[in-house]
Amino acid sequence: MELQTTIYLVVGFTFSLYIGIALWARAGSTSEFYAAGGQVPPVMNGMATAADWMSAASFISMAGLISNMGYGGGLFLMGWTGGYVLLAMLLAPYLRKFGKFTVPQFIGDRFYSKSASTVAVACLLTASITYIIGQMTGVGVAFSRFLGVSSETGIYVGMGIVFLYAVFGGMKGITYTQVAQYIVLIAAYIIPAIFISIQLTGNPIPQLGLGSSLSGHDISLLATLDKVVTDLGFPKYTTSDAGGMLNMFVYTLSLMIGTAGLPHVIMRFFTVPTVAAARSSAGWALVFIALLYTTAPAVAAMARTNLIRTITPGVVMENKDPYAADSQIVYDERPDWMKRWEKTGLLKWEDKNGDGRIQYYNDKSKSEAFKAKAAEAGWKGNELTVNADIIVLANPEIALLPNWVIALVAAGGLAAALSTAAGLLMAISAAVSHDLIKNVFVPDISEKNELLAGKISMAVAIVISGYLGLNPPGFAAGTVALAFGIAASSLFPAIMMGIFSKKMNKEGAMCGMLAGLFITLFYVFAHKGIFFIKGTEYVDLIGGPNSFFGITPEAFGAIGALFNFIVAFVVDKMTPEPPEHIQAMVEAVRIPRGSGAVHGAH
Length: 602
Description:
Largest sheet: 2 strands, antiparallel
Order of helices and strands: HHHHHHHHHHHHHHHEHEHHHHHHH
Number of helices: 23
Oligomer: single chain
Low-confidence stretches: 594-602
């Protein structure tokens, strides 16, 4: 069967499955809409959490970034996985014991203030919408290649699909849909990785293949990749870092604490019957997440190896001289996968020296010896631009795998993006309808109208994020890193202090959240434009790019969190202590005993 037909069949089948599940599991009450009635079994909730967690950034973009960055890209693995452990062990059981559905609800009750809840809603909306932009970017990339449409059209189609099952199903529909999406995305990630690992190293386990020797050679895959990338002027694959040691440390910390402050994952712990089930589902989710996260470094290294093998045949396996005139492929003889990806605009070639061949190398290398060799070979600049977001999706095509595997990867990439987008929309919907409208503006709203308000706010969020997804501030994983930074600087410190400091008062928490959010957005917008609108950057105002000790905007969330803590404690010392009953409530929640079922939205 022709490739495009196979893709339409597989993707069409998965989409109809998701919509069918959403209609079957329609939410009939606010409790089902916000927390799936609190009756999801731990293993299923673990799968749904993993799908919610592993977004387009994890599936589509992370391996692409590791592939480009080498060892430095490992910060995404460490930050996101470490953050999940922090969330599951340190925050989730306590939040679950408070019995609140949403982060703003917890902050409003713990800091005995509707204003604190409103500030938390503002922080949550900023982080969640930024996060969805990353998902929409991923949806656009996947649809543009696999449906043969532009990435803009891809985003519109994605918006329609998410709207259908998120708005109708609520948390109940989303949860069961995400179980199906997890199965699709993990199969789509691991099956091609096994094929490619066998092709390159003869080892069927990708994690072990990464450390194995190349088939028919006594030199390891990573040692070969190191030699080939340094020959082409790139930094050494196994030792490169991301903007220096300090930036790499702060970036990892920012992703870690941002993870622990992300509302859509925290909400998952209210969909199970008890605290014990919440802990159990956290453990299961970690197992399901580890399947993908331990495979990603192998996928990244093998994709980079295959990409270079395609463009400079013989250099990887036969140790040919990369500077020889016939080392690079002739553009007119390029493989079909390159032609298909060129149509999307995410792979571009420009013949800078007019020889009709593709030169792919690092023309920004600082090595004078390398520059001299490149000039001697007649190279006039890098001619191939490969968007990091296409690496995983193109990987099975580059490795010439069967059509059904390529179709499965298409379905997996879309499942990853759509599952997280749905979870985020749920968090946005709950924040607007439950935390703002019911708790602040219209306390006596009927359940029916509250549900309607939740659905309308979801629809508005889809339109806003879709519009911003058409002009994203960076790669999917880079945009998502910005969202983690916003959550890290605003919500995480307030949640931590709410649980572990019974003396922290409402004034301190509110001032801290606002200070952390403001300073992070100020630094991010300086680099990326105000609300990510191109042309509104003001990087000169802060002394040039990465002017704060070389820290990149994606890594700045940890610095924002530090400001949040400092401002909160300073203001706390100058204002009255929390009331006795609040201090007693914090004490009671920290005593490690189980609690009963989730109660309805209250």
